[in-house]
Amino acid sequence: QVQLVESGGGLVQPGGSRRLSCAAPGSLFRIYTIAWYRQTPGKERELVATITSGRNTDYADSVKGRFTISRDNAQNTVYLQMNSLKPEDTAVYYCNARISVMSYWGQGTQVTVSS
């Protein structure tokens, strides 16, 4: 069992930046592929960014060039640096850890982009 704890959400103005964190204390965090998803009311959960255990990354087209995913295995933490934020980035952001058929979710953190 992996417990994921997201943090860093909040209110940010358009064009601003925010860094989200996903921590998994006491786990074999380094072997998991970690992904950030986001969801708005009435819509399906959308994959935003992924980082593998080998630090390969992938991004949704909507965030390429603006978001950066990274991991610090010593701290059992994955980060999502979000720059040039737009109102359409407003969502609840979820962290997911997966390996083989196992998949774990955090509780989510709200990001609101508004002036």
Description:
The protein is globular, with a radius of gyration of 13 Å. It has strands at about 5, 10, 20-25, 35-40, 45-50, 55-60, 65-70, 75-80, 90-100, 100-105, 110-115. The protein contains no helices and eleven strands. A hairpin with a 4-residue loop joins strand 7 (about 65-70) and strand 8. The model has no long low-confidence stretch (mean pLDDT about 95). Strands 2, 4, 5, 6, 9, 10 and 11 form a seven-stranded mixed sheet that branches. A four-stranded antiparallel sheet has the order 1-3-8-7, with no helix packed on it. About 0% of the residues lie in helices and about 50% in strands. By secondary structure, the protein is an all-beta fold.
Would you tell me the structural class of the helices and strands?
A: mainly beta
| Poorly predicted regions | none
Number of discrete helical segments:
0
| Percentage of residues in helical conformation | under 10%
Largest sheet: 7 strands, mixed
The CA-CA distance between the termini, in Å, is 40 Å
Gyration radius, in Å:
13 Å
Shape: globular
Q: Write down how many β-strands occur, each being a DSSP E stretch of 2 or more residues.
A: 11
By oligomeric state, this entry counts as single chain
Spell the H/E element sequence: EEEEEEEEEEE
> Overall pLDDT, averaged?
95
How much of the residues is beta strand, in percent? over 45%
